[in-house]
Design goal:
transmembrane; 84% helix; Growth Hormone, Chain: A; single chain; MFS_trans_sf; mainly alpha
């Protein structure tokens, strides 16, 4: 599992990058004189290019050295963040976010697939959970630290901190990761057959709608908290969400290995996730309890990914890398769609409370598909 920790640290950098922007939106808005809904494009474009690049790269680089691909993708990711930090215009910033997203789309699914190859069969669930846990740790530790740097210095300083993390991740991959190869790519017909498999399609659509709700809502956490509480202080809410994500990511692998019923776990997770989002406006002004919905939201949102990856690998045992890439793609595509729709909601003046309603509607679609999967796709 020590080698898996190297991959987990790389995911730490991705988690930091994907979620810090939601916290520094006010600073970016002020620098480039853009409103919040426009700055939300920085999140949308990152996640969109992540979604588009993941399945393409999974097939394009199959059969190549995992170590080299992970190293080069982290290098591009780090360079892109350097450009973000020094971007003279908002357009260049968006371009840099697109490049960073594409590099993350290459790194993430390959890291998850590699983690499962580095351990024995009975530890695969834990390995996937630990790798995904690196991303949630990037939120628990990285995002609050980045926000602190933002408050003390500037949003650009937060990005420079991310650059430093990327450099450390590259060093770890270069020195400690063993040389393994990705699986040989299947024939084109076999790849198309996987994408048209009803079981795979329904599973990734469940991920898609849950992501629209969970990650899309997270993007606009700043205006949401400000509308509900009258304060722009996000720190405690981000801590609650991030610690929930860490808890969910680390515990879910053990639950998968122990109960061996990932579909049942996904059903429970989706129901609790919906309940937690619904409870935000009801509990946010209650002492102590105000943070509970955010903790549960983070825990369930992050816990949902590992069993979904596990389910897809069982559907496509000979094409696990592409299946994982497809799920990661739909996860971040959902985030991009959620962030874009959320920006539209705010731009039309509906208010941040409307984001909760849209999130719940999206979760209903996800739950209905999950019930169909449990009942008809066993």
């Amino acid at each position: 599992m020590k080698k898996v920790l190297i991959l987990s640290f790389g995911m730490f950098a991705l988690g930091f990058d994907a979620y810090i922007v939601a916290g520094i939106i006010p600073g970016i808005s002020e620098t480039y004189h853009k409103d919040v809904s426009q700055v939300g494009l920085a999140v949308s474009i990152f996640t969109l290019f992540y979604a588009l690049s993941a399945p393409v790269f999974a097939s394009l680089f199959a059969g190549k050295s995992v170590k080299k691909i992970l190293l080069y993708s982290m290098l591009v990711f780090t360079i892109a963040n350097i450009i973000t930090a020094i971007a003279p215009t908002f357009t260049i910033l968006l371009v840099s976010r697109a490049i960073a997203g594409a590099a993350a789309g290459l790194f993430s699914p390959l890291a998850i697939s590699a983690a499962s190859e580095l351990v024995s069969i009975e530890k695969k669930g834990r390995a996937i959970g630990l790798t995904l846990g690196g991303m949630s740790i990037g939120i628990v530790l990285g995002v609050p630290l980045g926000l602190y740097v933002f408050d003390m210095l500037s949003w650009q300083a937060s990005i420079w901190l991310l650059v430093l993390i990327g450099v450390v991740a590259m060093f770890g991959i270069l020195v400690y990761l063993p040389s393994i190869e990705t699986p040989t790519p299947p024939a084109l017909f076999e790849r198309l057959k996987m994408f048209l498999d009803k079981k795979v399609t329904v599973t990734v659509c469940i991920t898609f709608f849950a992501s629209i709700s969970s990650l899309g809502l997270y993007t606009y956490l700043s205006p949401l908290i400000k509308e509900f509480t009258g304060t722009g202080n996000l720190m405690m809410y981000l801590w609650a969400w991030g610690f929930g994500g860490l808890f969910g990511s680390l515990i879910i692998g053990y639950l998968i290995d122990y109960f061996k019923k990932p579909k049942t776990l996904v059903t429970i997770i989706l129901l609790i996730l919906t309940l937690s989002i619904t409870c935000i406006p009801l509990m946010i002004n209650l002492p102590l309890l105000r943070y509970l919905p955010f903790f549960v939201w983070g825990a369930m949102g992050w816990a949902s990914q590992a069993p979904q990856q596990h389910i897809l690998m069982s559907y496509q045992p000979n094409n696990g890398s592409s299946a994982v890439a497809l799920n990661s793609s739909l996860n971040y595509l959902g985030s991009s769609v959620g962030a874009t729709l959320g920006g539209g909601v705010l731009a039309f003046g509906f208010g941040a409370i409307s984001l909760i309603y849209f999130a719940v509607i999206s979760m209903v679609f996800s739950i209905l598909l999950q019930f169909y999967s449990v009942k008809s796709l066993n």
